[in-house]
Amino acid sequence: MNIENTKAQMRKGVLEFCILSVLKEKDAYTSEILDTLKNAKLLVVEGTIYPLLTRLKNDGLLNYRWEESTSGPPRKYYGLTEIGQTFLNELNSTWTELSDAVNLITNQKQ
């Protein structure tokens, strides 16, 4: 069994949740989202995040707006929709339950 593949699958499974969480306080453009994930030690490449942002937008969880930049081309800022906020709230509840269950199992004394 390849441990790196398993670790990658674990990270991939929570990426959507993390992106929505990054956007819960304020809208952000892709580089800001990537920087936030990187600072949390969740390394994601642009080739992974762009399709995911598009899918989240197409699912009605995100919207976006273009904003002029003083240091280059206009930037696409993503933000949560009302549906996205509701979805994130549900994910938060599910994450807490799952995290508690995993911690209970993995921290048991043998």
UniProtKB/TrEMBL annotation:
Residues 19-89 form the Transcription regulator PadR N-terminal domain. InterPro entries: Metal_resp_DNA-bind_regulator, Tscrpt_reg_PadR_N, WH-like_DNA-bd_sf, WH_DNA-bd_sf. PANTHER family: PADR-FAMILY TRANSCRIPTIONAL REGULATOR, TRANSCRIPTIONAL REGULATOR RV3488. This is PadR family transcriptional regulator. It comes from Flavobacterium weaverense.
